[in-house]
Design brief:
By secondary structure, this protein is an alpha+beta fold. The chain has helices at 3-9, 23-33, 52-67, 84-100, 108-119, 138-158, 173-180, 213-216; strands spanning 46-50, 126-133, 162-166, 186-195. The chain has a single domain (3-204), classed as NADH Oxidase (3-Layer(aba) Sandwich), CATH 3.40.109.10.
């Protein structure tokens, strides 16, 4: 697959088949992603691969916490406010997602079911949890972790696998720490759901939007 095709065709996958992903494929993808650049080659990412019964337990706990209205307490605070343009884009993708699933805005139960699926990682058979040491400067380690995650997603896509980067996986880090034995010295950054995409589900097929070049680029010549 051409790099440009991988970049342009990768999509967040929100419905997975139940088929397992071979351990050796996961290892190869992560091993290739280790070539991601990082500040001073510090390679701050630490990856916990969660599958099987432990993943099932995590999904259940994560869903229970979210639906019980438990206050999220992520290590990386969630943005609460955006400038208007970013807010519009955020709301737009939410609308497109629910429309693809034929969930009308006023269907509170339908929306709740969708959020429940999200906190259950959309049925993905693998969770890749990314952490960095708290002793590393937050801003740079976030840049490095972000680069790593994108490389990982593209490499997975190249193999026909689907990914969804999920802040929803790390809203309750205390439970994750206990279940996965992640020490308090680590900052839990983000989760990536991984699995074989369900190519029939419209939630994976709707059109995604991007702004045009001139919305982002300022030339100084
Ligand atoms: C840091 C980060 C956190 C995200 N968290 C979630 C999430 O919790 N739930 C979700 O459905 N998608 C999540 N996404 C996926 C974005 O919604 C998605 O990348 C965006 O809408 C663009 O769509 P695309 O990935 O299909 O191009 C996240 C993406 C990033 C980069």
């Amino acid at each position: 697959m051409e790099l440009k095709e991988a970049v342009k065709k990768r999509r967040s996958i929100r419905s997975f088949s139940s088929q397992a992903v071979d351990k050796c494929i996961i290892e190869e993808i992560i091993s290739d992603a280790l070539w991601t650049p990082s500040w001073g080659n510090t390679q701050p990412w630490e990856i916990t691969v969660v599958t099987g019964d432990t993943l099932a337990t995590f999904k259940e706990k994560n869903q229970r916490a979210a639906t019980s209205g438990k206050q999220p307490n992520p290590n990386i605070p969630m943005p609460l406010e955006w400038p208007e343009i970013n807010k519009r884009r955020y709301q737009d993708v939410g609308r497109r997602t629910l429309k693809a699933l034929s969930i009308p805005r006023e269907d509170a139960k339908g929306r709740l079911d969708f959020y429940n699926q999200m906190f259950g990682l959309f049925g993905a058979p693998v969770l890749l949890l990314i952490a960095v040491d708290k002793a590393i400067l937050l801003e740079y380690s976030m840049l490095d972790a972000g680069l790593f995650v994108q490389t990982l997603c593209l490499l997975a896509h190249e193999r026909g696998l689907g990914t969804c980067i999920l802040a929803a996986a790390v809203q309750y880090p205390d439970g994750l720490r206990t279940l996965l034995e992640i020490p308090d010295t680590k900052r839990i950054v983000i989760g990536v759901a991984l699995g074989w995409p369900d190519h029939e589900n419209p939630v994976n097929l709707f059109e995604r939007a991007r702004g045009s070049l001139n919305e982002f680029v300022h030339w100084v010549e």
